[in-house]
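hey can u check if this looks right to u? its 581 residues, i copy pasted from the old doc so theres a chance i mangled smth
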Amino acid sequence: MRRFVLCALGSSILLAACGGGSGGGIRSGDSGGGGTTAPPATGVTTPALPQLAAATGATLSSCADLATRITFANTTIASAADVAAGTLTVGGKAVPAHCLVKGSMYPRTGIDGKAYAIGFEMRLPLAWNGRFFYQGNGGLDGVVATATGGVNGGSGPDNALNKGFAVISSDAGHAGPLPFFGIDPQARLDYGYQAAAKLTPMAKHAIAVAYGKGPDRSYFGGCSNGGRHTMVAAARMPADYDGYLVGDPGFNLPLAATANIAGGQTYAALATDPADLGTGFTQQERQLVSSAVLAKCDALDGATDGLVQDTTACQAAFNLAKDVPTCTGARDGSCLSTVQKDAIGKLFAGATTPGGTKIYASFPYDNGLATPGWASWKFTSPQQRDSGATGLVFAVPPEDPATFDGNVFALNVNLDSLLSRVNASNATYTESSMSFMTPPNPSDLSALKNRGAKMMIYHGTADPIFSSDDTTAFYKALSAANDGSAANFARLYLVPGMNHCSGGPSTDQFDMLAPLVNWVEQGVAPDSVEASARGPGNAVAVNTDVPADWAPARTRPLCSFPKVARFHAGSLDAASSFACE
């Protein structure tokens, strides 16, 4: 009998990921505005990058006949149907009329005897803007999510389909969000990177059939595993897309999942109730630490406003051992024990195996750790998400699916052995998970850069599963590989307080697709992106983590790293009161 603890379905249903790693430093002028190329450290001006032309639109003349008109190798078009304006509503906005095309590619039978195919849907606007958006989905995939194309991690004020993009979504090569597909080696590869490579030419062909021309400009985007998909596409498919929108990327997913299991084992050892990992670091204790972080770091940006915007300075200013009271008696929520401080401090510094090998990146201290979303990833995910991902999809050899128990695995697996297995391959599983899940040579995006393509990356500093430290390290390495600055083709925006893709005490609502298009097609480099909070009355969805003393629609500039939003004068709830410096 199979025993496996499963979480509720959702865009972030499975795991995430990252591998630590440090890169060269970034100069203070790394995120300078404008579309010109920043000079390298040598003082020699580099050549200007190509400027890509703007897209031009077209009109869809017919829909239903696309089911027979679209023909492509290894592809079955199951249906094509008109969707009237307003039938689909996203974030309170009625989506215009479009054509919904459903199909599948590469049907086969796996080594486990199960049927596999790459399922997809495409939504083609009647009034098309000439652009294509590949929607990278979250978790373990396995579900063809509605193809709308998010402009950020799930709380955006708009979507690509509503803007007139043709959008594709897929299940990445397997049906269902459970990890048992990992027994089939081809399903692993499709999930990792091959589904996107197979779907992209088919989708562009379908667009050409529908509109009489292919897309002028193509964009790839997603958050979490979707952010990982996007980074992998940028590294493996730099000629296929012109803009890459990367959100809270799990680009080292197998390592992040393994590190989160290490965290689960740590919290289990601290727990007062063995059945509840959260009793190892209670909500009251997390609020204590969150308040201590604010006390040391809130004013570092010039404003005491409930946001830690200078994340780098905060890590130097805050000390868990000194700035949080130490219990002299029983734990009561007003202190942390010395054992807790030691164990939790080591997790923030970067989880290690019992043998002393660092598994993944460090995590920054931030006041967003007192939220239910943070707790879910730390105390529930190890058993319900990460165990299945590591044991069945990433490990070589995989666990036996007939006897797999996620609870037992997460709390008892030998971490040195597991880390070795996520890096292993054999005659059946010819690519390790660190090969098929990660972008090869992530700091070498020269092919993307040299053809004029652009990348925008955002990451919440309170993300509990994929660390913004890992993404920052990647960006520093990318800058180092580009004469000290990558800002003429790639920019990173940290989102203070934001949990995984959304939530947390943060301004987590923003449209990053519009400035990406403007950068790609008009050459206007985005030094900052305005973001707003989702307080009571928000049209998209209310973020219950927003503090009551904030204005419901508080705004902040998200600054191009390494710049920080610093307060000058005016309202603490207005982006105009801050400048990126």
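Residues 1-45 have pLDDT under 50 and may be disordered.
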